[in-house]
Amino acid sequence: MREFQMAFITSAEVKRWMQVLSVMEQERRFTIGELSERLAISQRTLIKDIQ
Length: 51
Hints:
mainly alpha; WH-like_DNA-bd_sf; HTH_11; 4 helices; HTH domain-containing protein
């Protein structure tokens, strides 16, 4: 179902936010490096999105 919903989101930033929130729901602890690797984005992009 989530994949279906994600197909309608056109903003790359919003998609990344949804992915980040999904990981945060599943895992309690993670590093920026682990999260950026899992989402296949750079650490800089992840930090920029979070700020």
